[in-house]
Amino acid sequence: MSSYSARRTALRQKLQAANLDALLVTNLLNVRYLTGFTGSNGAVLIGARGDDDVFCTDGRYLTQSARQVPDLERLIDRPCDIALARKVRGRLGFESHHVTVDGLDNLTKAAEKAELVRAGGLVETLRLVKDEVEIEALRMACAAADRALAALIGHGGLRPGRTEREVARELESRMLDHGAEGPSFSSIVAFGANSAVPHHSPTDATLHVGDFVKLDFGALVDGYHSDMTRTLVLGKPADWQRDLYDLVARSQAAGRGALKPGARTGHVDHASREVIEKAGHGDEFLHGLGHGVGLEIHEAPALSKAGDGTLSAGMAVTVEPGVYLSGRGGVRIEDTLVVRESGPELLTLTTKELVVV
Ligand code: ZN
Ligand code: ZN
Q1: pLDDT at 200
Q2: Average pLDDT of each block of 10 consecutive residues along the chain (357 residues)?
Q3: Do 140 and 110 have their domain in common?
Q4: Same domain flag for 114 and 155
Q5: CA atoms of 45 and 53, how far apart (whole Å)
Q6: Distance from the alpha carbon of residue 124 to the mean position of ligand 2, in angstroms
Q7: N or C terminus of the chain: which is more exposed, having fewer CB within 10 Å?
Q8: Which ligand lies nearest the alpha carbon of 299?
């Protein structure tokens, strides 16, 4: 059974539990997750019984969909949601978190024979726990980022006078060299005091000896995103830089150590945050601890103070505490990991020792 067909089978159990006869999947990422289709327009109707799934796309994707979705009945029509909704009798779930108000009007007119039922987030619930095919894609995405950073440093890419923009461009181009389809988000490259801005956009600021260099970046492989932050120092670190780095590293290790199946997401955040609070820097840790990562760069589960979710084996998350000293500099250390029964599997393998370039 292909992983796509296994995912559709798992979804069917959810449809039966929700007493739905079918689910109209219109969120393109969910369509990709369930079918393998990567085009820009498509939808899939998943039946509760398993013999009536139908995939729909338009004529531009006739050839591509034949290759990517060989195992489902295919409909070439548009708009796909309307064409598929017309086919259903009974209780038809739709992705209420994704359908617009106007879209719902059109759907209601088309689904004359069906009763429309809000069923937002059903596929996302399945996507929380990654299968091994997904984890392998994440592993490759993380490896591309690891290799790009090693090559950037190895080829002298971090040297005085370079701008944040130049380093961001080089990092992204090196990820492409190492198998990425693209960067998984706009890279954050921050030198010196700019490193105290958690989501700094690269500028023409130049690198100086003694600067922190904060790099938050990731690669996209098979649609899966990696996410890693490393903070380095150009030249000999000052004592305050070393102390700040050691603090964030201890906090990050505590967060990783709390990643266990059954752990509450709020507890994982607390385990890491507590280390920083005890050192008197709680107010300078300005964001949640981490987030799920997969077909989206930010997806469930969120690891945050208020988090009331529970971790399961197979979830892929980031652990990324940071302390930001306004006007001076900041440190963030971020890994992408998979929650496992035997302890978290680290996917971003670049060293977390303080790298001095
Ligand atoms: Zn990141
Ligand atoms: Zn992140």
Answers
A1: 95
A2: 93 96 97 98 95 94 97 96 94 96 94 94 97 98 98 97 98 98 98 96 97 98 98 97 98 98 98 98 96 98 93 98 97 98 98 93
A3: no
A4: no
A5: 5
A6: 19
A7: N
A8: 2
Dihedral of the alpha carbons of 8, 13, 16, 20, in degrees to the nearest 10: -30
Q: What is the pLDDT of residues 159-195, one digit of tens each?
A: 999 999 999 999 999 999 999 999 999 999 999 999 9
Q: How far is the CA of 143 from the centre of ligand 2 (A)?
A: 16
Ligand 2 centroid to 292 CA: how many Å? 8
Domain containing residue 222: CATH number: 3.90.230.10
> What are the strands of the beta sheet with 299-303, ordered from one edge?
299-303, 290-292, 316-319, 335-338, 345-346
Nearest to 302 by CA among 311, 293, 286, 290: 290
Q: What is the extent of the structural domain holding 13?
A: 2-127
Name the domain count of the chain: 2
Instruction: Indicate whether 356 belongs to any domain.
Output: no
CA of 217 relative to ligand 1 center, distance in Å: 6
| Proximal ligand: closest to the CA of 303 | 2
Same domain assignment for residues 122 and 161: no
